[in-house]
Design brief:
- Helix 3 links the parallel strand 1 and strand 2.
- The protein has 3 helices and 2 strands.
- 37% of the residues lie in helices and 3% in strands.
- The relative contact order is 0.14.
- It has a two-stranded parallel sheet.
- It is globular, with a radius of gyration of 18 Å.
- It is mainly alpha-helical and 124 residues long.
- Keywords: Cell membrane, Membrane.
- Its main location: membrane.
- Belongs to the UPF0161 family.
- This is Putative membrane protein insertion efficiency factor.
Length: 124
């Protein structure tokens, strides 16, 4: 006879982590950056508390930004996102852009501040 309760014994549910699960190039800078974010999540995040005003959280945003765009661009994006998260800063859903517009260049990192502030403008 079959299992009358609908249980699937021996089958484990798919575990999804809190960080972005998409494919990304595992370059040394990206691995270092995402590892530092993950280290923070596993250690200091519990002491800081769950006070992020955004979805995804600032650490999840930084992890995805570094994975998608590299340590330099993603690191700046993550830093500026954290700075926007204060009591008088932005809040709500703020996703990492899939692609960056051509104005976001490595030698002008201050431009990354604009990402997330103007959501009506497409980032591509």
């Amino acid at each position: 006879m079959g299992d009358h309760h609908g249980h699937m014994h021996g089958v484990r549910p798919v575990q999804r982590g809190r960080n972005w699960q998409g494919p990304w190039r595992k370059t040394p800078g990206r691995v270092l950056g995402t590892s530092l974010v993950r280290f923070y999540q596993l250690t200091l995040s519990g002491f800081v508390g769950n006070s992020c005003r955004h979805l995804p959280t600032c650490s999840e945003y930084a992890h995805e930004a570094i994975a998608r765009h590299g340590l330099w661009a993603g690191g700046w994006m993550g830093l500026f996102r954290i700075l926007r998260c204060g009591p008088f800063g932005t809040h709500g859903i703020d996703r990492v852009p899939e692609a960056l517009a051509s104005r976001y260049v490595w030698f002008m990192p201050w431009r990354y501040w604009q990402i997330g502030k103007r959501r009506a403008e497409p980032e591509i």
